[in-house]
């Protein structure tokens, strides 16, 4: 609860500060801002609960410790840049699974990122536009109350600025199409998919995008016909998505960056001392991984300490399989000697 309230108050403080005490805040967008504050509370609450799990907590703090190690920090920053380019910009982490999945994910991800980069600053009052005092054909852009540029109507910059949300909506619709196309043809995905976790997020993204495009169509093609009704429908879809954000599949947007630490963890483990098997003597993983795994098991109340003081995690997987086979063989022999079939 505390972390959720901290996240919510941080958003409120950012709105107050960025909008210069609400002077640049548009009251018509108060519902969007309110839903965002609630979403921030839910995200902070759930993220804190997620970090309370012993495995997540150990890997989280260990990842930060490894990344900010003074001796490794320059190389870690360079490695983070490569990871960011491959996994964030190119979305290659999902390309390994299938080309269709990657296409859908890329359009969905970048369409949502583009829309969020525009929508949240506008709804918070961080960015605003107004016509110039000496010309109605010139728009001035302000960020945090500071003028950052101007452009004339009818120019490419003006068209891009006024239609950037339409571009993001088209990108999201393309992603939704490919995602639904894959799910409709992949029998494996159809057997395990669930409405609340697999289909509802796509429906929400489709609803936001299509109602946003309807607003543009009403403005440019229908002389503003039903614009008020369409704007309310669009607001409802956006607000429902924001309320759903912390509790559904969209939460992985905030979980996924934490997985970048796994690469640093593996790299540090490979470069550090290795753990030899107490049975065969061969190294099978990093000492860092074994020690952290023991700590996680102790936190979970799992005790694999053996009678001679050694630990079961100090045995390599191959020797564990051998021990299992030897134990089963011994039990079969004992049962045979006692005449038990």
Which descriptors apply to this entry?
single chain, 341 residues, Fumarate Reductase Cytochrome B subunit, two-stranded antiparallel sheet, 14 helices, 5 strands, 67% helix
Provide a descriptive summary of the structure in words.
- With 341 residues, the protein is mainly alpha-helical.
- The protein has two domains: 2-261, Fumarate Reductase Cytochrome B subunit; 276-337, no CATH class.
- The chain has 14 helices and five strands.
- It has a three-stranded antiparallel beta sheet. It has a two-stranded antiparallel ribbon with strand order 4-5.
- Helix 1 (2-18) runs antiparallel to helix 2 (30-51), helix 2 (30-51) packs parallel to helix 10 and helix 7 packs antiparallel against helix 9.
- The N and C termini lie far apart (58 Å).
The stretches of 5 or more residues where confidence is low (pLDDT under 50) are none
Strand arrangement in the largest pleated sheet:
1-2-3
Question: What is the rounded Rg?
Answer: 27 Å
Shape: elongated
Kindly, what is the distance between the CA atoms of the first and last residues, rounded to a whole number of angstroms?
Answer: 58 Å
Q: Total domains, how many? A: 2
Structural class: mainly alpha
DSSP helix fraction: 55-70%
Q: Main sheet, how many strands, which sense, barrel?
A: 3 strands, antiparallel
Helix/strand order: HHHHHHEEEHHHHHHEEHH
What is the number of helical segments per DSSP (H or I, 4+ residues)? Answer: 14
Quick check: average pLDDT? 88
Q: What is the CATH class designation of the largest domain?
A: Mainly Alpha
CATH topology of the largest domain: Fumarate Reductase Cytochrome B subunit
């Amino acid at each position: 609860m505390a972390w959720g309230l901290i996240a919510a108050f941080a958003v409120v403080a950012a709105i107050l500060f960025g909008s210069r005490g609400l002077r640049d805040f548009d009251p018509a967008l108060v519902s969007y801002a309110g839903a965002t504050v609630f979403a921030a509370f839910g995200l902070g609450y759930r993220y804190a609960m997620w970090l309370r799990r012993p495995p997540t907590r150990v890997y989280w703090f260990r990842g930060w410790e490894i990344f900010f190690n003074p001796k490794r920090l320059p190389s870690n920053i360079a490695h983070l840049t490569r990871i960011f380019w491959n996994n964030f910009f190119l979305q290659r982490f999902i390309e390994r699974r299938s080309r269709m999945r990657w296409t859908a994910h890329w359009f969905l991800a970048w369409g949502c990122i583009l829309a969020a980069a525009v929508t949240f600053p506008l709804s918070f009052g961080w960015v605003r536009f107004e016509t110039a005092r000496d010309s109605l054909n010139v728009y001035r852009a302000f960020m945090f109350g500071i003028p950052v540029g101007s452009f004339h109507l009818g120019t490419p910059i003006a068209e891009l600025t006024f239609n950037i949300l339409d571009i993001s909506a088209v990108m999201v619709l393309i992603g939704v199409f490919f995602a639904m196309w894959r799910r409709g043809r992949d029998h494996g995905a159809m057997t395990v998919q669930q409405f609340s976790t697999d289909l509802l997020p796509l429906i929400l993204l489709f609803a936001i995008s299509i109602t946003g495009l309807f607003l543009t169509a009403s403005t440019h093609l229908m002389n503003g016909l039903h614009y008020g009704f369409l704007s309310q429908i669009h607001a409802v879809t956006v607000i429902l998505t924001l309320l759903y954000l912390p509790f559904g599949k969209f939460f992985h947007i905030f979980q996924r960056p934490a997985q970048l630490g796994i690469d640093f963890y593996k790299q540090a483990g490979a470069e550090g001392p290795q753990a030899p098997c107490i049975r065969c003597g061969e190294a099978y993983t990093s000492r860092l991984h074994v020690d952290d795994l023991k700590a996680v098991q102790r936190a979970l109340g799992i005790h694999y300490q053996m009678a001679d003081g050694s630990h079961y995690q100090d045995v390599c997987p191959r020797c564990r399989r051998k021990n299992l086979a030897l134990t089963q063989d011994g039990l079969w022999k004992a049962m045979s000697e006692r005449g038990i079939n």
